[in-house]
Amino acid sequence: MTVDDIQSIDYWPSNDRRMLYYLSQFIQERAAGTEWADPFSFLRVFRYITFRSAGAALTALALSWWLGPRVIDWLKKLKFGQNYADKAEETGGMAARILSKRGTPTMGGVLIVTAMDLSALLWAQWNELVLLTLLSLVVLSGLGFYDDYAKIALQNSRGAKSYIKLAVQTLLALFIGLYLWLLPSTSELITELMVPFYKYPVLTGVGAIGLAVTVLTIVGFSNAVNLTDGLDGLAVGCTLIVATVFLVFTYVAGNIRFATYLQVPYVPGAGELTVFCGAMIGAGLGFLWFNCHPAQMFMGDTGSLALGGALGILAVLIHQPFVLLIAGGVFVAEAASVVCQTGYFKYTKRKYGAGRRIFLMAPLHHHFEKKGWYESQVVTRFYILCVLFAVVALSTLKLR
């Protein structure tokens, strides 16, 4: 067989959806037993999830670095900059800092999502779990784009109506939950409830409860990452740390020997989500290059809603939603600070006639800014906390 022979073959099975993986296997099969077998033997590395995960990470990083300046110029030409008052400015906090950020291009989440999708499509095997995650990423990114556009084009600092965002997020989460529940191979992801530090399901046959946990995980983390996105590099940096945790968890969940040894739920096909995590890490690192202080662009809701939702979906697909509460402890704290602040303010206003606050300002990162911390101090210290939460989350693999 010659190179011309390989190029002329038009055989391409319609049921295979694996891009580089399939191409490598296709070439090896056609070259087997010929003089081309040895020269193409190196393509066997594409069988390994670890290799393809690394490839996805490097591809996403390279795409981000290459597309980054072009996306920034494109957003500037469209005048998609943050020229509206954000939550911090509306409440009268850090006015000088906020003004220094005016005009910075937002909607940078387009860069993250594009790099992630293209890299994952290129390197992963397209099973149901991967396609479900990629589809959800696009839907949430579109929702965030609509929200950012409403803020910019309509000069509406609140963006899209909150009930619209919540409705789309909930419908998407319900779709994912019901799809997994009705599919025999994945129904246990919904009907059984797993908790950290315990190797057996604490509840079985609880589809309704599992569905509620699925919705709360996806919707909750989509909004939690969105609330955390208030300082240069904060949200994407913490997302990188949590994604690294799930890089390990997805690999273990998709490997029957490791899953059995560590006594965690084995999910067939979940190993390919490791490739998605690799793409998320690469795209996140590439975006952080442009988002670190002083930021050249912000991810906006286009990126934060999608990244948070993706973390929630990953946790659901490997049967570890409660591990995400630990690994994403910073996101949980940020969201909790907003809920507590809002609830306490409304309660005290109703009871005493004037609202009172628990924190100087919410979300939590703004509270520490009001206490006099520099922006870089808040971000770095939150990174440290996120790493500590990640270590605890990883320990659940062995402590059970």
- Determine Rg (CA atoms, Å): 22 Å
Our estimate of the beta-strand percent is: under 5%
User: Would you count the extended β strands for me?
Assistant: 0
Question: How many discrete structural domains?
Answer: 2
Q: What sort of overall outline do the alpha carbons produce when their principal axes are compared?
A: globular
Helix content: 55-70%
Could you report the average pLDDT, rounded to the nearest whole number? 87
Order of helices and strands: HHHHHHHHHHHHHHHHHH
Largest sheet: none
Q: How far apart are the termini?
A: 54 Å
Show unreliable segments: 1-17, 88-92
* Helix count from the secondary structure assignment: 18
SS-derived structural category: mainly alpha
Briefly, what is this?
The protein is mainly alpha-helical and 400 residues long. It has helices spanning 3-8, 19-31, 49-77, 87-90, 95-101, 109-123, 128-153, 162-182, 188-191, 207-228, 234-253, 256-262, 272-291, 300-317, 321-327, 329-352, 364-370, 375-395. It folds into two domains: 3-45, no CATH class; 48-395, no CATH class.
